[in-house]
Amino acid sequence: MPSLPEIMHRTFFRTLSLLSPARQGMLLGYVFDWLHRTPDPWKLATDSYEQDKYRTTLKHLPARPYRRIIEVGCSEGVFTHVLAVTYPDAEIIGVDLSERALARARERVPQDGRVRFIRADILTHRSEQRFDLVFCSETLYYLGRHERLRRASAQLSQLLVPDGVLVAVHPWPEAGRLHHYLDSHAALSRLTEQVYTATSRPFAVTVYGTKPATPTS
Ligand SMILES: C[S@@+](CC[C@H](N)C(=O)[O-])C[C@H]1O[C@@H](n2cnc3c(N)ncnc32)[C@H](O)[C@@H]1O
Questions:
Q1: What is the best residue among 75, 150, 178 to mutate for testing ligand 1's pocket, by most ligand atoms within 8 Å of CB?
Q2: Per the domain annotation, does 30 fall within a domain?
């Protein structure tokens, strides 16, 4: 049974999702800039729970030489920084709606040309680039109703190259509902899911893959 703050949270973001995607994105931009009025609103850089979650998430990745990585909903780049250290040869992009968050992300992660942060809305962003690893963590629950979650799943899958990997991390049991839209997307197959319940805030790490490219004869 969701708590009252959870119900209010869901209702607020569902209401925003009744607007067109462009208007929803504009309002979400204001909301997340406001939430970032003080640095690191979710204590991602200092809370040991978050640091453990990052380490746990990385353990679920199929071992591959990832070259192009995108983190959608990167906030102030705390996990992006972990990715930059873990994959020192990869090109990494962090995407978020909040300019305030991105300004701090750019300070946190050395801007050596290999790591970049861009302001974009996951619901409407059209990326020219494709990635072999896509992360979406603690973000889908802000997108509201079913249609927007379906849209987000399509957008996330479009970011992937053939044989690419998508990792979604959200609180459990809500992750069951949120990841269902990724499960239902024709281009994605679920590779693994691990639910961690022996923690103060249970969460699920779900890993998806896209089909390998068909060899040309
Ligand atoms: C709780 S933070 C997650 C941070 C990071 N993924 C992590 O797990 O450490 C959620 C972030 O998602 C961003 N966000 C929400 N809706 C978004 C959207 N439609 N497009 C891009 N970013 C979005 C917010 O601005 C916020 O910074």
A1: 75
A2: yes
Find tokens 């701090």 and name the residue. 104
Distance CA 74, CA 94 (A): 5
For residue 130, the enclosing domain spans: 4-210
Strand locations in the chain, DSSP E?
Answer: 68-72, 91-96, 115-119, 131-137, 160-171, 188-196, 203-210
Mutate which of 142, 155, 178 to test ligand 1's pocket (most atoms within 8 Å of Cβ)? 142
Report the chain's mean pLDDT, rounded to a whole number. 95
> Does some domain include residue 216?
no
- The protein residue whose alpha carbon is closest to atom 5 in ligand 1 is 74
pLDDT tens, 188-216? 999 999 999 999 999 999 999 998 887 76
Q: What is the CATH number of the domain that holds 41?
A: 3.40.50.150
Distance 59 CA to ligand 1 centre (A): 22
- Residue count of the chain, please give it: 217
Q: Is the pLDDT of residue 27 over 90?
A: yes
Q: How many domains does the chain have?
A: 1
d(CA 173, ligand 1 centre) in Å: 19
pLDDT band at 217 (very low <50, low <70, confident <90, very high): low
